[in-house]
Design a protein that fits this description.
Number of domains: 3
Helix content: 55-70%
Amino acid sequence: MAEVLDKRYKRLKDFKFPEILLSLGVAKKTGILHMKNWPAEKLIYVKNGNIFFASSNIEEDCLGIRLLTMGKITVTQYYESIRLLEKTGKRHGSVLVELGYLSQKELENAIKNQIEDIVFGIFGWEDGYFFFEEIPFNADEVVTLEEDTVSLIFNGIKRMDSFPQIRNAIPFSTILTLSPGSQKIFKKIKFDAVEQKIIGMVDGKKTVLDIISNFQGNDLETLKFLYALNSIEAAVPVNYTDTDKAAILEAISETSPEGLYKKGTELFMNGKYRESIGVFKEAVNLSPGKASYHFYLAMSFVNTSMVEDAEKSLIKAIEIEPFNDEYYAELGMVYTKRGLTQKAVKTFKFALRINPHNERARNALSDLLGTKDY
């Protein structure tokens, strides 16, 4: 049976991957870019417009397999690290360092190269699907990519090798000129002497074909370089407008469960609880399987004294995440407000079974029982 795509996915053929990345960078978006091209599924993590992490379901992209194929670890070391990984639940990189198979510096370099290669691999996709999940989160990865988006796009395009794909992305008849912001962009990238000569030929008069024909060099490499300059908007068509970029931003920023969730949390944090109820209801309707959406809807109900509705939403959140002690603690508070003391006590005790350090549940239970001996 064919996989049914989430309705948020858009066809990659209708956009250019570099434009998607650049639009996220310009808008300083934070969230996860979901990329799918069967059997590959990749996630690109973005914070304030910059890529800092990436993951992939392709076995060759996994850290251990990469290190093994590169000769950085042996087969014996690989399987020993997998055994310890399964036993401890730690990250593979941490296990490799603990076993002494890699230094911390070697691990950091390997992870940065892994992130880059996962992203660079998408530049070669001729088709696929994507959607951007705009959600606030804290970057808790030990090793992250430090390269800015412009440099990443530039280097990603230079690694492409499909002539038809590049030719279609930047037609030979295109007349390029340097953009007003090109000098600022150029400060982020180091060009060699050949590349500097090509830049000198971008004068607002020559077509892409003129530059390739007049330049004594590798035609494909010249075309890739021009496409790279165009993708980072250092060189733009003479009739360039921001229309395409605006369309991409509109597509990326369209209403989604994550966008509604972000809007709802902003309203909630600003004390606009009645407004946040409506927004969280919409998010729940679009994505009923997200426990956090039900939880914040419940908290909005609590702050408007709609405790029975809060109870229903918290129970739904718990059905989705049955071992979240915070959800049980809040449900106990709701039962307390409704005067359902026995239910509250039972719920607080269950929260403490999951997490004995949940102070909210412990203090509330102590208040109900009048003792800490429970």
